[in-house]
Structures are given as C-alpha cells and as structure tokens.
Amino acid sequence: MHKVVERGTKSLINSRIKRKSFLNKIVHNVDDLIPHFQNGMYIGWSGFAGTSYPKVVPIALADHVEKNNLQGKLKMNLFVGASTGPETEDRWAMLDMIDKRYPHQNGHHIRNGINQGRIRFSDEHLAIFANELIGGYYTMDKPHGSKRTLDVAIIEATEITEDGCIVPGASVEDEVSNAIANHIVGFFKNEIEQGRLPKNLLPLQSGIGSIANAVVGGLSRGPFDNISVWTEVVQDTFLDFFDNGKLKFASATSLRFSPAGFNRLFNNWETYQNKLVLRNQSISNSAELVRRLGVIAMNTPVEFDIYGHVNSTCTFGSKMLNGLGGSGEFLRNSKLSIVHAPSTRPTKSDPHGISSVIPFASHIDHPEHDIDILVTEQGLADIRGLAPYERAKVIIEKCAHPIYKPILMEYLETSHSLGIKKGMGHEPHQLDKAFKFYTNLFEKGTMRIDKW
C-alpha cells in the first residue's frame, strides 16, 4: 500500500494517518508510482456518482501517457463503483487508456469509445457488481497469472485509522464544507429567534456529497432537538444524528452508507429500525407532500448566478454532469429552499479557476423564483423578498470568493447603470459580456478575467 501526499503537509499527514507503521510508505512524488502500472492491468478505483474517486494518481498517469505519446500503449481494465469525474476516466478514454470498463460510466469520450468499439463495456446492476467482481466474473481472462481480482486499487481517503482502516473521501468534512454548515446552523438559530421556524425546525431534506454530509453533521451538533428528516438519501452522518438523540425520525428512498456505516446500521439494528423508513421515490419526491410537510430543502448545485438562478446539471451550459435528481421537486415546493456550494473550484492552472457565483448561469434548472437561501464558505445570502438588483448585491457580497467579488460587482453596477438608462433596469445584463467567465476559462484556464 502506498499513499501519495503533497510536500509541505507532513504535520497534516501525521494527524490523518493514525497507524504510524504506514508513515514510511508515503510517496511524496506521484511520478514514483508510474512504474507500478503496466499495460493490461486490472485497476480498481473508489468512487460512486462523482464522489470519493481518486484524482492525483489517475491524472498523473494521464499526464504520463500524453507526455510520452503512449496513447493506446498503456491501456487498463477499469472497475469503479459507478461514475467518477471527467478529469479522470473521461480523460483516460480520450487518451485511449481504457480497454474494459465496468459497471457504469458518465462521460463524452468514454461513451464515444464504447460506441466506436474501442472500449469494452458491460452495463451491470450496481447492487450485484461487487459480489460478481469478487467472484471473478469479470477477470477470468487476466493475463498476469495472479489470482487476485485486481492488480492495483486506487482509493481516495482522508484518514487511516489506528487499525489500518480507510476513511473514504466523501465521508469526511473539510474546512469549506464545515464553514457552509456553520452558516446554515447560524441561519436556523436566527430563524428560530425571529419566530419563523419552530425549535425543532421543519422536516429536513439534504442532498448527497461532502457538503451535505457536513451540513447534517453540523445540525447534529447544533442546539436543535426532535428533528425529523424527509429526504431521498440517508448518508453516514445521519447515524451520528440518531445516536446523539437529536434526530427523531427519517424518511428516505435509499441508504448511501459507507461499508462502515452499513455495519453500524446492522450491528445496532434494534436501535435504528423504528427510526427509519424507506419509501417509494414517487412518495419521497412528491411535490404535494414536500409542500404540505413544509420541508427545508438543501442541495448542492454546479453554480448559481448573481440573480439567484441555479444550474444543477450542465457544466458550461452543455455538458451533462449527473442529472437533476430530486432537487427540482424539493427546491420548488419546499418551505425553505437552500443551495450550497464552494465559492470556487480548481482548474489545472488556477486553484480558484472556476467561480460558483457567475454573472449569468449557462444553464438554469431552478429559477430565481424557487430559491430562498444561497450559501458558500464565504457566507449566506438570504434573498427572500428582495428585488433582483438587491439580490445580486447580497449574493456577491455574501457568497462570492474575494478574488471574484470586485469582478462581479463591476459587472452588476455597469449592467444596472446601462439598464436604467435604456429603461431595462429590472434584472439587467450585458449580453455581449454575460458569458465571459466561460470563454476566458476555455481560452486561459481560469474565470479570472483581466477586464470586462
């Protein structure tokens, strides 16, 4: 087992790797791992539905292939729980690095490779895939003579426990997620003080991913009791919520626990069995029930614009990410609709290359009329009852990253001034400049524009 870390993070790594005998296996330069990968290997990745998948090693392998013109010469058989991210498996497909792929994928290049016959793909039921993989159904033609199902497993982890167990990426909160959670907890406290919410809040709906996990974790540590949940998916942090006695009951359609979470559930089944019910999605996502129950909906989008329009599905307005899921039913019909996202995301050349707060959303799944609260680690924007210009100022001030705040404010003020002069000042845009963040990203690898 090798662990890859960046330089300058020794104290952080020491605190994350609790099994000290593993510390001498740390690899500081990812390129040192490249020789361990050979053509025809059977490779397993962690990950499911775009979360907890490895990035550093797969990207380094792709860089190695591209730099050395090894397209088609270093091809592997790839096994992942479900889909990952475009910067990993889809780039591998583009570089002709995938021979076989199981059991689910999501990406333009990999779809093309499958349909053109370059990638052998078997579409399998996710529930039975793990057992069939362990049983050797997909690896009977392994050429290396090894009886192991996989040659190499690459797992994204944020901690190694004292007994050597791996804590997966999506199960752990980070500083950004915790900051978002703290803003939401603070907002709920104020709503209770103002008499707009009861002390036990209202039924909660939460999406999936690290931010959603952190929000639920923050609520479980907050001053709220007798909480109820009406949602689609229950994750690991809900178990903590149950265990501290603050979560009274949860209704969902599916359980998205880690292996440790499922063990915890089954080992304490008598504790949880009367606190949890699974319903058909036509009931869990029913617009009528969501509205009647007064659900508080919390979901993570791709991006949102300065007027409060939210994109949950299509990056750059065109490329499908994962899909709408249940966010539409919940955000439109909830008592309180909350969207939360990191203020920026990295690109290859800029750690803050993509702003989640943009002038004009490239694709709109949830219009301004359906959104009440927008949150990033920078702050929380309460846009209830505000006119578009007021909304925009609050969203920029509270949610935008400091790098992008002056850029967005300049766009807003110029648009507002021009709009008023033309008698078009209600929700003004400069259509010749509204999408400049995207064009600059394509051309220069960052949304940080030099000037409008």
UniProtKB/TrEMBL annotation:
<dbReference type="GO" id="GO:0005739">
    <property type="term" value="C:mitochondrion"/>
</dbReference>
<dbReference type="InterPro" id="IPR003702">
    <property type="entry name" value="ActCoA_hydro_N"/>
</dbReference>
<feature type="domain" description="Acetyl-CoA hydrolase/transferase C-terminal">
    <location>
        <begin position="261"/>
        <end position="411"/>
    </location>
</feature>
<dbReference type="GO" id="GO:0006083">
    <property type="term" value="P:acetate metabolic process"/>
</dbReference>
<dbReference type="Pfam" id="PF02550">
    <property type="entry name" value="AcetylCoA_hydro"/>
</dbReference>
<dbReference type="InterPro" id="IPR046433">
    <property type="entry name" value="ActCoA_hydro"/>
</dbReference>
<dbReference type="GO" id="GO:0008775">
    <property type="term" value="F:acetate CoA-transferase activity"/>
</dbReference>
<comment type="similarity">
    <text>Belongs to the acetyl-CoA hydrolase/transferase family.</text>
</comment>
<dbReference type="InterPro" id="IPR037171">
    <property type="entry name" value="NagB/RpiA_transferase-like"/>
</dbReference>
<dbReference type="GO" id="GO:0003986">
    <property type="term" value="F:acetyl-CoA hydrolase activity"/>
</dbReference>
<dbReference type="Pfam" id="PF13336">
    <property type="entry name" value="AcetylCoA_hyd_C"/>
</dbReference>
<protein>
    <recommendedName>
        <fullName>Acetyl-CoA hydrolase</fullName>
        <ecNumber>3.1.2.1</ecNumber>
    </recommendedName>
</protein>
<feature type="domain" description="Acetyl-CoA hydrolase/transferase N-terminal">
    <location>
        <begin position="23"/>
        <end position="173"/>
    </location>
</feature>
<keyword id="KW-0378">Hydrolase</keyword>
<dbReference type="InterPro" id="IPR038460">
    <property type="entry name" value="AcetylCoA_hyd_C_sf"/>
</dbReference>
<dbReference type="InterPro" id="IPR026888">
    <property type="entry name" value="AcetylCoA_hyd_C"/>
</dbReference>
